Amino acid sequence: MEVKEMIKTVIFDLDGTLLPMDAQAFERAYITSITQSVSDMVEPEKLGRALWSAAHVMVKDDDPTRINKDVYYEAFEKALDIPNFEELEPRLDAYYESDYDVVETVTKISEEMVESIRYLKDKGYDIILATNPMFPQLATDKRIRWAGLEPSDFRYITRFESSHFCKPNLNYYHEIVKICELNPHQCLMIGNDVEEDLIAKQLGMEVWLLEDNIIHRGSDILCDWRGDRKALLTHLKEVL
């Protein structure tokens, strides 16, 4: 009964958690489709290297005054180093409008996760989406819908256009706590990435490691609970 009385906010990761996927298959589908969409302007391998380089810079950035989008595009332009970069930007924006949809083929809907969200909403819990803010809002919203959900299902969503940090930077979770005025000890974080999601435990959050589509780079696993999506749904109904 103690957890039931304490938890007020449930925080979910998106990719590999609410949205089942194989991370490597997702990355291949994404990189292949986005580089091919502008192959008339930039050689695909060169664009792919620039995308990963900029993402690495953004993840490592720790400047609380700069949003992820600004950090990313500055690093991306520098890494790409082409004279017609201003012409490339609108083409990449257009990619997310249509060609990005091919990536949905490597994802699927989890009925257990959809039911988990519905159950928590019906019970009146505060629900937050803590997806690593590395993609434009349109891309994030599409992946939410690929999961069988809607952006309106969440009180707050971390965004590429407004967040100042990425996972696994602990400041990423500090920012969520500050903006949403949360008590970390009343939060449950659910995710499939050992390093990126379980770090929330350092703030005092309860954490559930989702073992479906688990991502583990070798660090120690420190969590309160663990199991697959079916076990998670059962747990939520029993405890919350």
TrEMBL record:
GO terms for molecular function: hydrolase activity. It holds the Pfam family Hydrolase. It comes from the Bacteria. The keyword Calcium does not apply. Transmembrane segments: none annotated. SUPFAM superfamilies: HAD-like (SSF56784). The keyword Hydrolase applies. Keywords: Hydrolase. This is HAD family hydrolase. It comes from Erysipelothrix inopinata.
